[in-house]
């Protein structure tokens, strides 16, 4: 895979996705590996997207505070 630009430090091994942010690439690669890093602590629900987990929490566990297994970035 040729690098589209030297400005991008990371190029996906499976597609042409590229970024200069480590976390973004880690997150992107998971979309290929099928790993779902965002897991609900109250049931078996797992998601690739943090937004999906937030939505799940509101729907399924409206009375418990949202806990993140991954640190939120600022
Ligand atoms: Zn990719
Ligand atoms: Zn749940």
UniProtKB/TrEMBL annotation:
Any one GO biological process: positive regulation of DNA-templated transcription
UniProt keyword annotation of Zinc present: yes
RNA-binding as UniProt keyword: no
GO function term, MF aspect, one: zinc ion binding
Signal peptide annotation: none
UniProt keyword list: Metal-binding, Repeat, Zinc, Zinc-finger
Pfam families in the record: zf-H2C2_5
InterPro entries in the record: Znf_C2H2_sf, Znf_C2H2_type
The C2H2-type domain, residue ranges: 10-37
GO cellular component term of the entry, any: chromosome
Name under which the protein is recorded: Zinc finger X-chromosomal protein-like
Protein species of origin: Diaphorina citri
Source organism phylogeny: Eukaryota, Metazoa, Ecdysozoa, Arthropoda, Hexapoda
């Amino acid at each position: 895979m040729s690098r589209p630009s030297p400005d991008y430090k990371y190029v996906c091994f499976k597609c042409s996705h590229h970024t200069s942010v480590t976390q973004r690439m880690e997150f992107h690669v998971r979309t290929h590996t099928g790993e779902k890093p965002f897991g609900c602590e109250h049931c078996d629900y797992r998601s690739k997207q943090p937004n999906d987990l937030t939505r799940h929490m509101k729907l399924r566990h409206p009375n418990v505070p949202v806990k993140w297994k991954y640190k939120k970035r600022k």
